[in-house]
Design a protein that fits this description.
single chain, 224 residues, alpha+beta, 25% helix
């Protein structure tokens, strides 16, 4: 009788131990499954983070500073075209994205255009507001306009002799239009047509200096 009871107790202990072992194993497996990362979700999240890092969107696309360079042709208009030759020039740009639709842009340029002993010198610091017409993915056409400071100078023929004008600072207008394509978080390329019209500069001797010019440029910006 005692042996029979011992065998029964042993069987019950073995059963309980087996059940406990199964329970612990199941609990551990469940916990491990909860902690195990989903490879597909992780890959998707990493790709999303990578895209978000490469191309700004939402709040990340505003309050950004960009420095750029523009290279292209400068076309002299009016009297300037008679005293200088069109040529390839370069400009420096600074852009600040104030909102989703409007940017503040600054342009600095200087160039000297010679022709048959005469020349036209264009130097300007143009301040403009850039308005984006719309934005499709990373592409955006825009228009801009504003005022600026200019230092025009010319050597021209006056009364049969070549005469050099005095360089004086004057105010002026600038207008433009173009399009830009953001390649990634830091780089953006585009094209721009930029028109500059300094106000006339009076001279002590000789006629006023009157000139305007148009720039057609390819641009490259670095955003930081």
């Amino acid at each position: 009788m005692l042996l029979k009871n011992l065998v029964k107790v042993f069987c019950n202990v073995k059963t309980v131990t087996s059940l406990v072992t199964v329970f612990v194993f199941a609990l551990g497996t469940s916990a491990w499954a909860q902690k195990k990362p989903n490879i597909k979700e992780l890959t998707s999240n990493e790709k999303t983070k990578e895209v978000a890092t490469d191309i700004p969107s939402g709040n990340d696309s505003v309050k950004l500073h960009s420095l750029g360079i523009g290279i292209g042709q400068t076309f002299l208009l009016g009297d300037a075209g008679d005293n200088g030759e069109d040529k390839i020039t370069w400009d420096i740009y600074y852009n600040y994205s104030a909102s989703y639709s409007f940017d503040f842009m600054t342009n600095f340029h200087t160039s000297k255009h010679k022709f048959q002993g005469k020349y036209v010198e264009t130097t300007g610091l143009a301040l403009s507001i850039k308005a984006k017409a719309f934005q499709f993915d990373s592409f955006a056409p825009f228009a801009l306009g504003g005022l600026g400071f200019y230092w025009p100078k010319m050597r021209r023929e006056v009364s049969g002799t070549l005469q050099e004008s005095k360089s004086k600072m004057t105010f002026g207008l600038n207008l433009g239009a173009g399009a830009e394509l953001r390649l990634n978080r830091h780089f953006m390329v585009g094209v721009i047509g930029h028109y500059h019209n300094p106000f006339d500069v009076k001279q002590d001797n000789g006629p006023d200096v009157e000139l305007s010019y148009f720039k057609l440029l390819i641009t490259l910006f670095y955003t930081f």
